[in-house]
Amino acid sequence: TLSVSFHTFSPISSNRFEMGIFSLPDVCLWEIMARVTLQDRLRLRLVCRAFEKLVAGTNAGRFETGSIKRWTTKIRRGRRGSVDGDSGVIVRLDDLEFKLSEDRLCLLLQLRHRLFTGISFECFEMKMSHAPFRDVRIKVRNTGRVSSSYTLSSMSKNERVCRIYNSQQLKRHRYCLGRTRALIMKR
Amino acid sequence: RIYPLMRVTLTTSDGASVTVSRQLTKHSGFIEKAITDMAVDDNAVPLSAVAVDVDDATLKLVIEWLTEHRDDALPYPEKTDEERRADDIPAWDQAFVQKWDTKEDQQQTLYAVITAADKLDIKGLLDMTCKTLANKINGKTVEEMREILQLECDFTEEELAEIRKENAWCEN
């Protein structure tokens, strides 16, 4: 028989009623925060200062699909056709969809560091060569895993992404848009 | 060397002792490391200086979970740090955690088991309890979250208004 002793430094039995979520080890907090939804992250920011900090300092986890696409309304001008009206982007995260105007998009880009340190997708699509993203620094990091399906779509409009993408031989890549990450897979 | 019939006596921080088979403790990376790091001979070898705070009540819950999961495959499947699924808790585990709901300090029990699973390096139990806590939070209002997590709001009204303003892009 082996004997393992759990020595008493601060016995849980005497401190149990003082335990709180922030008594948990960091690794547990990261595990939990990777499993709450984005809407829950927004609400958790309002719970207390410690949670506001935790939300900003943890990864939002992995989503199956994500996309950013541009939208524009057309204004008819008599018989001569139409001109572009309001515009913005549609951001989709799995089954969540946000239609954002230009100014809201800029707000989103500014605020994302308060919502998570990173966010990952199995499949990510960006149909735009839109100004706010044109100068975003993009990193490619090979995940070492091979996956099977994704169409690059009009991602090629972003020349820098396209150049990095085409220079890689493996099928699956991780892109970082600032601190926002995306996984993109070649068919 | 592995001794499948070996029994391990666990002594908790509050002085209680429980003897369990190696078949259960093999799921604890911490205990396994403590055992294998020593020059184990054929017979009993005392282990010492293992600094983990686990009380009797928590250890009983951990052993109950280990007993149910004694035949689980090892090593525990590797997952990415970005895995976010929380809806795949096995039925037995759900019932196991729901039993705590009858206790006055259910949230404290959950925290204690999460801490024990982390310290003892029992990946399956840690994974399940973290998912359970995430599920408790998911979909709740801010007030409900504070109540579940037993936290007080330390923001001023102005600060809350500012955060709500920042959140507005998503809530609509």
Structural description of this entry:
- With 187 residues, chain A is α+β, with helices and mostly antiparallel strands.
- Chain A is 29% helix and 33% strand.
- Chain A has helices at residues 12-15, 26-33, 38-45, 49-56, 102-115, 131-134, 159-166, and strands spanning 2-5, 62-76, 82-93, 96-101, 120-127, 138-142, 172-177, 180-185.
- Chain A has a 4-stranded mixed sheet. Chain A has a 3-stranded antiparallel sheet with strand order 6-7-8, covered by helices on one side.
- Helix content of chain B is 49%, strand content 6%.
- Residues 40-51 of chain B have low confidence and may be disordered.
- Chain B has a two-stranded antiparallel sheet.
- Chain B folds into 2 domains: 7-138, Potassium Channel Kv1.1, Chain A; 140-172, no CATH class.
- With 172 residues, chain B is mostly helical.
- Chains A and B meet through strand 1, helix 2, helix 3, helix 4 and helix 5 of A and strand 1, helix 2, helix 3, helix 5 and helix 6 of B.
- Strand 1 (2-5) of chain A pairs parallel with strand 1 of chain B, so a sheet runs across the interface.
List keywords for this structure.
heterodimer, A: 187 residues, alpha+beta, 8 strands, disordered C terminus, B: 172 residues, mainly alpha, Potassium Channel Kv1.1, Chain A, 2 domains, two-stranded antiparallel sheet, 8 helices, 2 strands, 6% strand
CATH architecture of the largest domain in chain B: 2-Layer Sandwich
Major sheet of chain B: size, sense and barrel closure?
2 strands, antiparallel
The most extensive interface between chains reads: A-B, 57 and 76 residues
Q: Structural class of the helices, strands and pairings of chain A? A: alpha+beta
The quaternary structure here is heterodimer
Order of helices and strands of chain B: EEHHHHHHHH
Distance between the termini of chain B: 60 Å
Approximate shape of chain A: elongated
Helix content of chain A: 25-40%
Succession of helices and strands of chain A: EHHHHEEEHEHEHEE
How many beta-strand segments of chain A? 8
Low-confidence stretches of chain B: 40-51
- What spatial order of strands do you see in the largest sheet of chain A? 4-3-2-5
Uncertain residue ranges of chain A: 7-16, 130-187
The separation of the N and C termini of chain A measures 56 Å
